[in-house]
Amino acid sequence: MSSALILSNVSRHFGETRAVDTVSLSIEPGQFIGVIGRSGAGKSTLLRLLNRLVDPSAGSISFGDTEITALRGRALRSWRRDCAMIFQQFNLVERLDVLTNVLIGRLAEHGFLSSMAMRFTDEERAMAIRALDRLDLVPQALQRAGTLSGGQQQRVAIARALVQQPRIMLADEPIASLDPANASLVMDGLRTINREDGITVLVNLHTLDTARAYSDRIIAMRHGRVYFDGTPAQLTDDVVRDIYGLEGLREFDEAVTSTSVAPVRAVVSA
Question: At 74, phi and psi to the nearest 5?
Fold first, then answer.
């Protein structure tokens, strides 16, 4: 039976800054969750806490009977395999070919020597090809990763996460630097994986219409706290105004100029 991911009064402080402040959430299996909010609202820190790239200053995170905040060593590495992370800047090895970059997602299953030698089985190579096929990247399998477009590189990063066979995928602003066409391909890929594989997806997004179009549930953060948690239909114009404020809306307008989304003024107008 699948387990829920539970955050109980989780906080993360950086000096005097409360990046995440007493957040409690229950994330049910198979949900597609969009996380929105102004820059500095705590979105990225929240995802890094879930993956344990940073440790909480207070509170606890659990997945079923497992206390995530207590994991160390091999158990922590296993959790990071189960809770895959996709970054805005792709984090590919540009000099290696696409197939090898995807196979890197299997290194957690290997011993030290095997990992250092990058030795993969035929079954793992087949798994990587299947992942690339799902993201329409098989023709690029032997191409050097650094020669791909940004959108293609992000889909390679998704394929790499997919071969980890995770239970949860976290994506931190995966389309922030992409043009509209590539942004759609990346989001479509994440949604397909979510629906076909039942993998829980949490994705930080900087555009409201993308969050509304793809998410089952939207979480909005403000000053490190959860300000809104509901369905896209419940994210009313008044709530959006409160989340972003006038200065935040100007930030959104700047983001809109590089995407295909409708102008934010239209989104939040009365």
Answer: -60, -40
Q: Where are the domains of the chain?
A: 5-268
Residue in 123, 125, 80 with CA at minimum distance from that of residue 103: 125
* Sign of the four-CA dihedral 115, 66, 193, 240: negative
* pLDDT mean across residues, the chain: 88
pTM score over 0.85 = yes
- Cα–Cα dist 145/241, whole Å: 41
Question: What is the 3-state secondary structure of 202-217?
Answer: EEECCCHHHHHHHCCE
CA–CA distance, 17 with 135 (Å, rounded to integer):
39
Please count the residues of the chain. 270
If residue 58 lies in a helix (H) or strand (E), which one and from where to where? strand 58-63
In angstroms, the CA 245 to CA 195 distance is 34
- May I ask the CATH architecture of the domain 5-268? 3-Layer(aba) Sandwich (3.40)
In this predicted structure, the answer to whether residue 269 has a pLDDT above a threshold of 50 is: no
Which pLDDT value is given to residue 200?
97
pLDDT band at 3 (very low <50, low <70, confident <90, very high): confident
